[in-house]
Amino acid sequence: MNRIKKYILVAAAMLASTAVCAQTLNSLYFLEGNNQRHKLNPAFTSDHGFVTFPLLGNLNPTLNSNIGLGTFLYPQGDEMVTFMHPSISNEEAMSKFNSMNVFEFDLNLDIVTVGFNAWGGSNTIGLALRSQSGFYLPKGIFQFLKEGQTANEQEYDIDNLGAQTQNYVEFALGHSRQITDKLSVGAKVKLLVGALYAKASAENMRIYMSDNEWRITERSRLIASKGMNYEFDEDGNLSNLDFNNFGVAGYGLGFDLGAVYRINDAATVSLAITDIGFISWKDCSIAQNDNEEFVYNGFDNIGAEDNPDGSNDFEDAADDLGDSAEGLVNFKDGGKQGHTSSLYTTIRAAGEYGILKNKISFGALYTLRVGTPRVYTEGMITANFRPTGWFNAAINGSFSNVRSSMGAVLNFHPGAVNFFIGTDYILAKFSKQVIPVNAAKFNFAMGLSFNI
């Protein structure tokens, strides 16, 4: 169990430093010269066609975690110790964890997109790769790692522990047009081809610790699409997991809807709902454990603190437990069945006001993201600059239920070329290893396309 504790700690720290959650930069929302704005609101029209450079039309990793490296490591003189060190009190360590600790990492990679004007409006045809993954760790699991057994009887209730990944190819067709001089509307339909899906969840995990025994019960389930294959031993218990036989694992459908209304020459309001839809995964493999109880009676009045000689009774005994931990969770073969997952739907509502003949404008953008175990809300205030016909830029400040930050984006579009680079969220504090220290929300995007 000592090894298990260390693996959980290392994995959590690594995830806190590398999690990404991809989307097109919100900072681009008000930059009229950019060719990627249709991803944020399909009602945005363009007066020219374009084609993106293969694989570089929109490359956008984004970090999203409500904890960072500083949650796990503490400076002690010239050294760093973990939150599990005896010098770090339980109260101090637990104050840095949230009720649910989230690590999400995705990839949004445009393979190619073509835009053209026809049929009374602007049109887009796009092919993209989408990958969305997340880890969700409740506070209770870190309390267990930190505190161990501190009384004659100790109990931990851990719920909603989980992880999931969803990977698919997206083929999108979009159309936007002017309805009146003031109103533009747009829509996009997305045909989705599933490549890989997996979800692991544990509910109602109860850890009861006493001087005489440990009792652990939980209800857990594993779902995996084609590409991840479970192997079971002769007793029907999960024994191995292989990654092979990749192919089409499912199909889905998605929609984007949007509208832009120009109140006057200076003021505009807009609304968009993107990624409304689902993917139906076929023949998913199921492995499950239904409240089986694991009992271990090899403990004798131990605690989490170190002994004077440097040994730790809890960790020594936990090592013995780790050697027999294969019985902790026995996943049984649940057969195969279909499974439907939703897309990560995003709602954006915005207003913009321009001055100096729209050379400068100020915008407010509200974003609500649903469809995951956690709902994200964000408000962003931007200042947008259009000094010339070939260059525009924006700076912003954002406030969300993860953290507040600042960002900036530059967009160059002289003649036939359109290139942008920027970020919505700038991390202010890194470790020497360039790992975010505090709660981290960061993204970076760049793209290259050619105007037609």
Structure description:
- This protein starts with a helix and ends with a strand.
- It has one domain (2-451): Porin (Beta Barrel), CATH 2.40.160.
- By secondary structure, the chain is mainly beta.
- The chain has helices at 2-18, 69-72, 90-94, 139-147, 313-323; strands spanning 50-52, 59-60, 62-65, 73-76, 79-82, 100-118, 121-138, 153-158, 161-178, 183-210, 214-224, 228-232, 238-243, 250-262, 267-296, 332-342, 346-355, 360-369, 376-385, 391-400, 405-412, 417-423, 440-443, 445-451.
- It is globular and about 75 Å long.
What are the defining features of this structure?
452 residues; mainly beta; Porin; 20-stranded antiparallel β-sheet; 5 helices; 10% helix; disordered N terminus
Task: Give me a quick take on this structure.
The chain has 452 residues and is mainly β. It has helices at residues 2-18, 69-72, 90-94, 139-147, 313-323; strands spanning 50-52, 59-60, 62-65, 73-76, 79-82, 100-118, 121-138, 153-158, 161-178, 183-210, 214-224, 228-232, 238-243, 250-262, 267-296, 332-342, 346-355, 360-369, 376-385, 391-400, 405-412, 417-423, 440-443, 445-451.
